[in-house]
Design brief:
Radius of gyration: 15 Å
Order of helices and strands: EHEEEEHEHEEE
CATH superfamily: Gamma-glutamyl cyclotransferase-like
Strand content: 25-35%
Number of domains: 1
Distance between the termini: 44 Å
Number of strands: 9
CATH class: Alpha Beta
Number of helices: 3
Helix content: 10-25%
CATH architecture: Roll
Structural class: alpha+beta
CATH topology: Hypothetical upf0131 protein ytfp
């Protein structure tokens, strides 16, 4: 299978372009476009958002074999029929990032994600709908079960609360 020489990250919180953390902790960007991903947002006790990813939308999990992880995500998305019309979705940014080792070091550290650990945020590949209607795989930091003390977010786009 021919895999794109880029990969993507779906950012819905502090890694979006307008957030200060993006420049400090975000990956190197090749391009950014509006997009949405299936799921629901919850707010952690610290005030930050987390995306709940349903099992049917979880197409790969990040491991030390990053190249084959991405290949698996591309293949699974190509084979599946993902629809965005009947499920809730979250607005954010689709960030095109280079195909290079270490590109996730800064965002993984910021999100508290470590491969193989039981951290709150996990890096998983999900289907993402770009504003032009194209569905692509993208890495997203999220969870598959609601963390303790997290509360549902009312809306589909996180806005930073004052003081956070």
């Amino acid at each position: 299978m021919s895999v794109s020489r880029s990969q993507y990250l779906f950012a819905y919180g502090t890694l979006r372009t307008e957030e200060i953390e993006s420049g400090l902790h975000g990956p190197k960007r090749l391009s950014t476009s509006a997009a949405k991903a299936p799921g629901r947002l919850y707010i952690l006790k610290e005030g930050y958002p987390i995306l709940l990813i349903e099992p049917g939308n979880h197409i790969a999990t990040a491991s030390h074999k990053w190249e084959s992880d991405w290949e698996k995500a591309c293949a699974k998305l190509a084979a599946g029929a993902f629809r965005f019309t009947s499920q809730p979705s979250i607005e954010g940014e689709l960030i095109e990032i280079p195909w290079e080792r270490g590109v996730f070091d800064r965002p993984d550290s910021w999100e508290g994600f470590s491969i193989g650990s039981n951290s709150v945020y996990q890096r998983m590949a999900v289907p993402v709908l770009r504003a032009d209607g194209v569905i692509l795989p993208a890495w997203a930091y999220g969870c598959t079960k609601i963390p303790d003390l997290a509360i549902p977010f009312d809306g589909n786009r996180w806005i930073r609360p004052e003081g956070l």
